[in-house]
Write a structure and sequence with these properties.
It is a single chain. With 179 residues, this protein is of the alpha+beta class. It has a single domain, classed as q2cbj1_9rhob like domain (Jelly Rolls). Helices cover 18% and strands 27% of the residues. The protein has 4 helices and 11 strands; from the N terminus they run βαββαββββαββββα. The strands form 2 sheets. A 7-stranded antiparallel beta sheet has the order 1-9-6-11-4-3-2. The mean pLDDT is 86. The chain binds fe (ii) ion. The site of fe (ii) ion (FE2) has 4 residues, from loops.
Length: 179
């Protein structure tokens, strides 16, 4: 059995609607980097200082002190992003926030497949991460393999913060967080 806390955690607060609307506004104006594959995750440019989302609480200092980057991800309709570990050596923990309400099939995000070497045969365990609208999720994106599916005709839009901290330290810090 996989302990999903090694893979991801749903953080214990909700993003207020005015901030979600601000994120949506910036999303509509920002450029997206061309990705290698048409049917895959699309990454936006990194938000410039004047576009940065401020949470108005201790999260701002936390993210600033860990050289965090803010960006958007879009998973286009009928698309998937294959199994991968996030490539950044420094920004090893990711916080994702879904910007719209999506149905269950949209929330098909698998995480934490053991590698073939660990198992010795072709059986891969998967854990589904079910995004809830406006809830932040912290992902062990560097440490665990993950895979994204969108088997619907609606693009899935995510606000994403990449932080320069270990997943373990981030889980501990957010575990003590009182906003
Ligand atoms: Fe990833």
């Amino acid at each position: 059995m996989i302990d999903h806390r090694e893979l991801f955690v749903e953080l214990d607060f909700t993003i207020e609607m005015p901030l979600i609307e601000r994120m949506r506004e910036i999303l509509d104006t920002i450029s997206f980097i061309r990705t290698k594959y048409e049917c895959s995750v699309q990454f936006s440019n990194i938000l410039e200082p004047d576009q940065q989302i401020k949470f108005g609480n201790k999260l701002d200092d936390y993210f600033a002190s860990r050289n965090s980057l803010q960006m958007f991800l879009i998973i286009p309709p009928y698309s998937y992003f294959p199994w991968h570990f996030d490539p950044s050596k420094e920004r090893t923990t990711v916080i994702n926030i879904p910007l719209y309400e999506y149905d269950d099939s949209h929330q098909t995000y698998f995480s934490g497949a053991p590698t073939r070497e660990e198992l010795g045969y072709d059986l891969y365990k998967i854990v589904q991460m079910k995004y809830k609208f406006a809830h932040p999720y912290m992902l062990n994106a560097k440490g665990k393999q993950h895979c994204v599916f969108n088997p619907t005709d609606i693009p899935r839009k995510i606000f994403s913060i990449c932080t320069e901290t270990s997943y373990k330290d981030a889980v501990a810090w957010f575990g003590d967080l009182a906003l």
